[in-house]
Amino acid sequence: MDSIQFEGIKVGLKQSKDGYVLTMAIHPDEIPDDLVRDFVGARYMVVMVRLGDDEKPMERNKVPNEPAVAMAGMLCRNPKFWAFVNEHTEDAVATEGECAEWFKYYFELDSRADLKTNEKARDRFLKMKERFDQWNK
Questions:
Q1: What is the pTM assigned to this prediction?
Q2: Residue 111's domain spans which residues?
């Protein structure tokens, strides 16, 4: 199996009907010819390793659990998530503020930022997010 390797920088992430769209910047001297020649729509198996400031692979368990906090904030602003909460719990959520309060109550947190350190609440939240993602499809 032939593989191509290059270094890239994440410059954007957005959501489409097909999933997430990752945009990367690749220096012109780094982009592999095979990647340039492949047709748009070609499929790849992707393996990525984040580099630290020391140019060495970064261990993910050393990265704070801030992605869960960011996801919680995004979901609390999402009316589809409010509908999911309303359908799957006995609570009623109709605004971002109500959702933020519900979130803290439901996951027994003082703040959504506590997801960084509260592993039990973070695990429960990630399981709920998986259920929401399935429901939202």
A1: 0.53
A2: 64-136
